[in-house]
Amino acid sequence: MSCCATPAPRRGERAVDVRVIYRTCPTCGHRFGQPDDPGRKRRFCSDACKQAAYRARKREREQARQRAEQEEARHRAREDARRTHDRARRTPPPHAGTSRPGPFCGTCSGHRGPHTLHHDQAAHDRARRRYDGLHAKADSTGFPEEAAACRAKAEQLRAKYGL
Hints:
Radius of gyration: 44 Å
Structural class: mainly alpha
Order of helices and strands: EEHEEHH
Number of strands: 4
Oligomer: single chain
Number of domains: 2
Shape: rod-shaped
Strand content: 5-15%
Helix content: 40-55%
Largest sheet: 2 strands, antiparallel
């Protein structure tokens, strides 16, 4: 044997200078060598380490997805609790919508007169305009069914608003 680290070429073979690259496997930490030839270099020392790394990545992705779902559920629960709390604290303004709480209706100038709901002046004015419009449409239409429907609706408005 010779004193060199590389064996002598056999008869008919030429000596080839092969450089070796050493890497450390990220899964097991084993140090392995591979030829420095063109192409992609190996990252893992064996297929078992490559499969173990894949399973670890897959497990991490699943855990991250579960953490995100839990965080989303916690966020949704906090939002629902905040909305419920806000709804419980919120009180409607004194004249919310068209109804006014209390037994007195200034527009009708009385206590629960001909109608049961008590409304502000703007609601009575809108109802009066709609009532007049329905009567005008009933008088101008040539279809008896439409005229009857308009008169019925006008009668409902009159009963409700005391017109």
